[in-house]
């Protein structure tokens, strides 16, 4: 429980709340229909992608800029953060998402609000198909995050923030036609709470969580394994206090913080 006495821990929690609030505010805001006609998929995809890229650049070095319970779950599965930190991250993300959606609701004319960009299945898409799509969307997203955040790599070129943002954009360009591209339980949860519409809502939790977990297992145990013993992994999950003088070492329960290399 030493993390609860750490100022950096609480800064990271607030960063997740703050970042998710802005992510939902701008992402959902760009998804509202202000004029008649079809919704511009590219506009929505770019809005979510650029919002996340901006936030990764802004708070990545503070909390890792997860902004997504599925991403946090993926880091937990990979034993890269403690159970306590993961729980607090997810709570902050959900609260931030609801706060962001509430602000958007309050500043948007009633005629435009609609369902506040609630994720819904496209007609004809079954629950099984929708869940599978969400799994694949989140799987590629988490793989990109793990690869670009990996501190073991010395060959990273370009902007980490843009790489993550483009991965999210890719998911939206495909997923919008099937499920509205949830990819983030907090993003799906916020409009569902405000509109009190939880129809098929479980899809937007089960799909991303499974996809995130699979992405973590695939990267950390198969593609680029982290050579940690069971005791080391358990120590991280329990949030054992770091033993070195700087308080910085593998196995501390600290998040994998972003080392941005923007060109």
Automatic annotation (TrEMBL):
Source organism superkingdom: Eukaryota
PROSITE patterns given in the database record: MIP
InterPro entries reported for this sequence: Aquaporin-like (IPR023271), Aquaporin_transptr (IPR034294), MIP (IPR000425), MIP_CS (IPR022357)
Gene it is expressed from: MIP
Protein family (similarity comment): Belongs to the MIP/aquaporin (TC 1.A.8) family.
Catalyses which reaction(s): H2O(in) = H2O(out)
Entry protein name: Lens fiber major intrinsic protein
Alphabetic keyword roster: Cell junction, Cell membrane, Eye lens protein, Membrane, Transmembrane, Transmembrane helix, Transport
GO CC annotation, single: anchoring junction
Pfam families (UniProt xref): MIP
Region (Disordered): 238-263
């Amino acid at each position: 429980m030493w993390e609860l006495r750490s100022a950096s821990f609480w800064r990271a929690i607030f960063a997740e709340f703050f970042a998710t609030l802005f992510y939902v505010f701008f992402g959902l805001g760009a998804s509202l229909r202000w004029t008649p006609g079809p919704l511009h998929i590219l506009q929505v995809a770019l809005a979510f992608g650029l919002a996340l890229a901006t936030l990764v650049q802004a708070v990545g070095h503070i909390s890792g800029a997860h902004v997504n319970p599925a991403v946090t779950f993926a880091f937990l599965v990979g034993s890269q953060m403690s159970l306590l930190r993961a729980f607090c991250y997810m709570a902050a993300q959900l609260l931030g998402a609801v706060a962001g959606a509430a602000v958007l609701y309050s500043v948007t004319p009633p005629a435009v609000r609609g369902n506040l960009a609630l994720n819904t299945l496209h007609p004809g898409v079954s629950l099984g198909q929708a869940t599978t799509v969400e799994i694949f969307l989140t799987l590629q997203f988490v793989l990109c995050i793990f690869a670009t955040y990996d501190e073991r790599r010395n060959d990273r070129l370009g902007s980490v923030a843009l790489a993550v943002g483009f991965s999210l954009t890719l998911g939206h360009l495909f997923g919008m036609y099937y499920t509205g591209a949830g990819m983030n339980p907090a993003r799906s949860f916020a409009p569902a709470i405000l509109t009190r519409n939880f129809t098929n809502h479980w899809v937007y939790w089960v799909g991303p969580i499974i996809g995130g977990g699979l992405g973590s297992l695939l990267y950390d145990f198969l593609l680029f394994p982290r050579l940690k013993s069971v005791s080391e992994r358990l120590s991280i999950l329990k949030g054992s206090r770091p033993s070195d003088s700087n308080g910085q070492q593998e196995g501390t329960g600290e998040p994998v913080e972003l080392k941005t290399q923007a060109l």
